Amino acid sequence: MKLAGWTLAILLPLGIIAARHLAWRRYAGKPFVEAALALPLVLPPTVLGYYLLVGLGRASPIGQLYEGLFGSPLVFTFEGLLVASVIFNLPFAVQPMQRAFESISNEVRDAAACCGMAPWRIFWRIELPLAWPGIMTAFVLVFAHTIGEFGVVLMVGGSIPGETRTAAIAIYDRVQAFDNMAAGAMSALLLVISLLAIGIANLASSKARGRHG
Amino acid sequence: MAEGGLIEGGAAEAAKGLEVTLRQDAPIPLNAHLSCAPGEVLALVGPSGSGKSTILRAIAGLTPISHGHISSNGCVWYDTQKQIDVATRHRRVGFVFQSYALFPHLSALDNVMEALGERAGDARKIRALELLALVRLKGLEERRPFELSGGQQQRVAVARALARDPDVLLLDEPFSAVDRATRQRLHLELSQLRSQLRMPVVLVTHDLEEAVQLSDRMSILHRGQILQDGPPFEILTHPANRQVARLIDLKNIFQARVIGHDSGHEITRLEWGGTSLEARYSGDFMAGDLVDWVIPSGSVILHRRRGPSRGVRENPVHGVIETMVRLGETVSVSILLDDQDAYPLFMSMSAHAAARNAIALGERIGVSLRADDIHIMPSQTVHHDDDL
Fold this sequence. Notes:
A: mainly alpha, 80% helix, B: alpha+beta, Rossmann fold, 2 domains, disordered N terminus
């Protein structure tokens, strides 16, 4: 849960920047940038987890840099897990937001500039409200995917209580220990929270849609 | 350039209104100069792809042009030589887009208020309400665009464009998205609104009637070139050449040779494929010159088929009716003339005149070409691949 929250906090702003960029810029390498972003969709979680483990591990430049800066390794920590989570959630965040920003017509943005609106004002008053349904969809997808992800988390994070043990892994752990009671309770709780989160997001998204018909 | 634009010393006094010079080869070829005085409505008329919308977008700073200079009231907005390119939001333009481009999630009032960002809170709302009342939208301020009709949306767009007290008002085919009846009403409203506008207005349209009705001056645009510039009536009756004549939808364009002028300088005589014609005097041409000439289809006059008619002596020609198309109260007729092999002559008449004279396909008729309405132009080689 903590992981889902932090992933969303980092990924939504990051995703909005990337999505706006992809939606409106035209350049030669764009299909490949989009392909790279979509990779986590196609690769098995274990493959992704393996590369992340190697890429972020104590022997890698990134891992060493991080350890030099903060004094602790990146893998098998919450921070490492968060980096992994952000990466494997990228397509789920960027794609719906990119479609949402693409659906804002150029003329509407031109009109805003002709109205004398400053770029930040155009973003807050025009782009963000119009892209809101897409942003909500991204929210739901990232939340659901983070809660449900298993393979990558196990590869990069392991299952360290209080640090990298996510709900999904905790349930797996309980089932392995024949503690069906605890597994059942945790599963039910996860189910209810997920249902509520997605429901609320859908509600917000459909309200936003209804506003401009 | 972040702020305002530069005032050019000295010349600034003289340079009131909008001055635009644009030149580029790609992506859309342009080679045009236009100017528009405060309070004047300039119509850019041309077929789609002629570059008229590109010119409008360039004035607003929405499309870069490879070589150009744009100034408004002496303020330079764009100058490729001096590398001046004032950002769109710092150019004082009001832009009405073809699709209106209203902000779909905001009410009519909020749409207008977004363009009033320079004013303080209360003043913004008061001004926005005034503007919406000006375009007759009182009572609909809280509606969102999807709750408004096409004509009402267009009026919100006009109010929003006027909100900044723009130095230039730019209208990009603003009437193309509404039905005919609404369009006529909006034309009328814009004509009335005009008396209150003190800025140059540039109207882009492919609708010639609209341009004639609403503008003080027309520029006929084709492939990025301005072919002719002048008051609408002047262009309609005196097209500069065959190409302009086609663009303003004159159907009767023919070639002839000048025989000479009469002594009183009232008539120029033409030899047209064996027929001798009298035309309005045109001293620009000498005997023997090959020329193009045009006549509006309304200036071809039917000879009464039962009994004599006045004007039978004026350039009489005869032929067989080839096609007949009824358009409401008028009938458009094409005639294959006896002595002319190439193109038919088009004329229009009222439906009741057609009925009274028993006009029908294959019938022989005689018509007169009004000499005063025959306009002579320099001959232009005919390009058959021209997509006019």
